[in-house]
Structure formats: structure tokens, C-alpha cells
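Submission sheet (multi-component)
Chains listed below:
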Amino acid sequence: MKRRRPGPSGVVEAPLNATAQAKAKDEGRPSVADGRLQTYEPGDNVRRFLELLSSRVSRPLAVSLTACVHCGLCAESCHYFLARPDDPTMTPVWKADQIRRIFKRHVDWTGRVAPWWIKAGSPRNDEDLNRLKNVVFGTCSACRRCTYNCPMGVDTGLLVRFTRGLLTELGVVPEGVFNVSRDQWETGNQMAVSEQDYLETLEWMRDDVRTELGDDSVEIPIDKDGCDVLYTINPREIKFDPRSIAQAAKIFHLAGESWTMPKWGWDQTNFGLFSGDDNLGAFVARNVYEAAERLRAKRIVISECGHGYRSTRWEGYTWAGYDQKLPTESVVVTLKRYIEEGRITVDPSKNPDAVTFHDSCNIARSGDLVEEPREVLRRVCSDFREMFPNRRENFCCTGGGGLLSMAEYRPLRLEVGKIKADQLRATGAKLVCTMCHNCIDGLNDLIKHYKLPMRVVQVLELVSNALVLPGKGA
Amino acid sequence: MATIEVDGKTIEVNEEGFLARPEEWTEETAKLLAKAEEGLDELTAEHWAVVTFIRAYYLEKNLAPMVRKMCQATGFPLMKIYDLFPSGPAKGACKVAGLPKPDGCV
Amino acid sequence: MSGFLKILENEVQIAALIFMAIVYILRLAWIFRFRTRRDRTFAAGRESTGAGYSLMNIAMPGAMESTRKRPGFYAQFVIFHLGVAAAIAGTLIIPYAPGLFERRPSVLLFQAVVAAAFVVGIIRLVRRLTNPVLRSVSSPDDYFSLVLLIVWFAAAVLAMPNQPGKGEGPLIVYFGLTAFFLVYVPFSKICHYLYYPFTRYYLGRSLGHRGAFPPSTKRRVAPVHGEERT
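Outcome: structure written.
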């Protein structure tokens, strides 16, 4: 394989790798066999793409597609363009135009009569669809920073997700997207963790907390009926780093919470957000909502995950056509409540290192939580400092939009992560706290690549460190 | 694909720094990957305990093992795995053991 | 004033306006054919406040980093659109309230606003022709619309003194371009003002529902559980 040149031409020309798809078909994998997950077949994909486009575009998307006046203000809001200022294909307006031109050609008016006048056009063949795939999966993390900076209110982030969804329907997706979608369809979680592995890991963490607290009454109840809290997690916590599960269990125990984790429907992450597949989104979200219903829990609590929070708290209800019945909150909000109500006691001097907070795109821009994590951090850290810009104007960690699962786009992602790295370095902090697992890995990649003297932590870890255990004084 | 050069030798890795052809892994490759990707100049017996287990598990099951299994097999607590491999079990230990990148956002 | 100019200032404008209105109605019908989906979640904020904040965006340059960082660009936007308003007003004043332009100060004021817009138009055209980002996305319509407006502004400045006796040229060009403009607008990007309420409303409503619009550093007293419904 030849060494790929870094840069947009390299990324846009990345070939469609359908090996994993072919393998899944040969093996008769259930999600492929029963049509839940589409695979790529050479054929009239362009025609099918255009049909999907016409039938699926909603009103908010249609007006986002027509309203752009090509003013170019969005350009400087995007970390891709800021890191590569001599590359117009990195601007939100250019990226959105790749789907906009097709819409204008086939759904809009003027473009059907005189396409050249408004630069409307069609994909000609599967290679063009593949290039479109590289643009929407590989040159954008769908962070919606451009959306917030557009005077017309064009939602480019949403347009990118929409386009991804059309391509996913045709199997024109990066290999990583196919693999994770397949795993989540078939096992109910993104990392193909088996029920046995899940339960045994929870037992292991429960035992660790029992040892740490010297208290054998610590439990991680599974499928317990009628609890106040149903706790849902990210499969990454089971497969690679269960420390956050132990931290949560410890805090729930000390707060005297009545809580449980479900045997099925424990995955709060949702690859449907990244692949644009509303059906997958609905399936995964519904698993959580139905688990809460089945177990008659009073509240759904979501462990720290950006896209998981957005999917489970917000988008999932719409995808699944399921009216929200129970309060659904992030565990950070739960922690805030515990601290404010005095259910746990914390001592900020136990976290003496300088900490800065990285607002995750899906939580701040596409969600409601901006002050809550700060209120917690100010209570558990003695040196909290903001990065700039922050809150809803923060820059993406570059790990968003599922990019971490798409190896072929990594070089570009790391290159444009320079913007984030500069931001981090300027804080002078030793720790960067974030509420999102993808951000942990995205930031870790940047810390390693740009050699920053920092470590990434989550709110749970900082709160856990700051705990004042009962009977041990302040 | 890309190559990394360590100690005058080159190995071919993918964009994430994982071995391009997992079947070509040797102990020598492990040392090179550890140095280039994890900043580890030397692999101690404890490192090897983890790497050997991961490699054997992968060859048998064609999957990356869960961190729980790593801890069970080696007897190390979770924190030890992170101490040994700063990038963690997935991006650190599995990489040194010559596995392909685990699927998913990690 | 010749009979030709009289008809151009009146009947032709009205016909063009009616045409534009009909096409706009059809366009709105087209927009409403696309569906929306109901939000089924508990709200964390108010949809109406979010929508209101969003719709006010053009009057709040401090609200977005992009306009905060480019105040000159925003100022140009304001001047340009004031020029549009003044030039449109001129096409109504001249046939129906010509007394207004018989007073020198009023004419000068209108001319000044439109002349400033003309200058901004030139600046923007140069930008569109030379900035690589804009060149990569601009279509013939983008260039043509801008040139059309620049020429129209120039004609307006020259025509506003409203003295057909001294030569009907500027007035003919001014009203001729206006009629053309009215007919052309629905098929070009110039009718972005028709879409603005839609994009801003939908974005504002969605982000208002999620408590993201308007941004507030002090959290409002909304229940932590998010049970408030709008």
C-alpha cells in the first residue's frame, strides 16, 4: 500500500474498503442477512441515493440547504479550516455544498432547469459517492460549531449527519463505521461485549470497591426492580477501562442511592448518531428506555459520554418515536445534586492539580449542560481554570463524529487538532477534565501527538478522589 | 499505511500506529512498537506477561481480550496495566502485541 | 416624464411585484411540503425564547464568534442591507410620494445610504473574486446577484433626484432593474430573506428546547430533572 499523502486530496480519494462487509455477508452475519445493516453492491447506487435524498429530507434540512448565501463566515469557526487556512475544502460551506449541489439539482427549482447557474450537480458514479463519503465522514466531526456561527442559521452539522445516513443506506461507509454498526445491531452494544463479560466485569468492580471501602454491603445491583436510578454506561468502560464503573458504584453507595444496572439495554452510546442511521439509533435508545420501563426505574442516569448523552437524553426519543416518560440525566447532574444535598461530602484540596474543562460538542452545543460540570468541578478541585474559548464556543477534541473508529482519517484529524492542542497548552493546566469518552481518546491522541504535559480525567474520577469518607473526618 | 523507524529498522503500521500485518508480529516487533508508540525503551517481564497473554488470546479467538481477562490472567490490578502501558490496554498493550486496532471509538 | 417611464414606474412594477408574490407563495408551499418531527423529550428550556433569540441574530453581532471577530464585516452587512431598503423605498417614493424627494436633505440622505451600500458592494465583489474560500463555492448566481445589486445601487443614486426632464436614463435603468430584480429574486439566492425566518426558527426552537438558546452563564431555575414541558 502506498503511503497516503496528508491533505484533503488524500482524504477525499480514500478508497471504499468493503472487505469487512464482504466478510460479513459471507459469514451470514444476522444484521446483514436480515437487512438491518446495508452492504455495498456495485450497481445503480446513484439513482438510489437520489431517491433517498428526495424522500428523506425534512423541512429544517431543506431550508438549511436553500438558505446558504455563500458568505463564508463559517470558515473561521471550523478547526479543520483554521488548521489548514489555505485549503477551502476544509470549510463548512464547501463541505455542505457537496450535498447542497445535489439537492439543488434534483429537489430544488432553479437547479433542475439551469444547474450550472447555481453550481448544482449530481454524483456521476459510485466513485463520486465514495468521495462524498470521505468528505462527510473524514473531514468533519459534526461538532456544529459552524451552525452556531452562521448568520442564516444553516445547520451544517445536521446536514453532514443526514448525508452520512443516505450513504449508510447504500453501504458506502468507512470500514470502522460498518463494523461498529454491525456489532451494535447484533449485540446491543458498540463493542460486542457479551452479557457474561458485562456481568463479570461489574462483579469485579464491585469487589474492588468493597475492598477499597472495607464494606461488604457495596452492591452493583443487576435488574433490580423499582429503583430510583437506572445507570447506563459506555461499553468502553467494560472492555477497556472499568475504573469509572467502580467510581460510580462507590459514589452511589456513599450517597445511599437506590440504583441498578440492566442486564440488557445498558449501552447508552449510540452509533446511529454517527452513521446517520435513525433505525440503529432507535434500536439502541429504545433498549435503554424499555429497560427503565421494565425495571420500573424512576430515572435514567447516563455515564459520562458526549454522543451517548445527546443520543439517549435527546435524539433517541425522537428516533424511536417514544415519548419521554422518565427524567433522563447525565451522571454529572446526579453528582451535582448529591453534593448540593450533602449526600456526599467532598474536599477540593484532594485535587490540587490545575484542572481545565473541555466542553464536549454533543453536550454543550447539542445539549443543555454547560454550567453543571463547572459547578461540580469548583467543589472538587482547588485550581479550576477555563480554557478559551469555552462553553458552547469550545473547539472539538477532533475525536467527534465517530472519527475515532475510522483509522483512515486519523492523520488529518491529528493535523487539525493543532487548534485544540494550542488551546490546551495555553491553560497551563495539568489535567483536562471532560464528560465524554470519545473526548478522552481524542484529547489523549492530541496530548501524545503534540507532546502536551497533561492527563485527561473525567468528572467521576475527580469527584471520587475528592470524597470524604464517612467517619474519616475532613 | 505508514512506516515507523526505530533503531534503524522500519515497520509498517496503519494510520493509528497498529501493525499493518498482524501475522508478521515477532518479539522484536513488539519492542520496536513499544519504543515508538508507547515511549517504552525496555519491556520488563511484567510487560511481557501482558503482551504474551494478549497475543495468545488473539491467535485463539481473533479478538482483543477485555481488560478484565488481562488482569485475571496476569494477576495485575487494573491500575498496573495503565502504569505499564500509558496508552491503556487497547491503544497500548494490544498495539504492542501486534493486534489490529480494536473496533469502535477508542 | 414620458409615457413609457410612467408605465415603467407604476404598472410594470406592480406586475413584477405580483409575479414575485405568486412565486413566493408557491415557494412557501414547497417548503411546507417537507415534514417536521415532533420533539418527544422533556424540555430543558423554552422553545419560544430560543426561537426568538435565534431570529434576533442579525441584530446581535455579539452573539456569534464569527461576527464578534469580524465587526467590519458585520458593519458592511448592515450598510448593504440599509442600502437595499433605501433603494426599494425609492421605487415607491418616486411614483407615489415624490414630494419627499423634492427636499434636498432627504434625497441626499437616501443617496448617501445607497452610495455607501454601493461601496460595500464593490468591496464584497472584490472579496468574492479574490478570496479562495469564496471562489471555491461561488456560483454564477452569486456573482451576478452582487453585480446586479451594485449596478442597481448606482442607478438609484443617480435616479433619486427624480428629474426626468434632465434625462430619463437613470430612472429607466433604476426602475427597469427593479422590475427585473423582482422577477429574478425568487429563483436566486437573493430571496434568502424568505428562508431566514425558517432556518433561524427551527434552529432556535430546537436549541431553545434543549436550553442551549439563549446562552446563559447563570443557569435558570429549571428543574434539574428536566421535567419542565413546553
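Remark: Chain A has 25 helices and eight strands.
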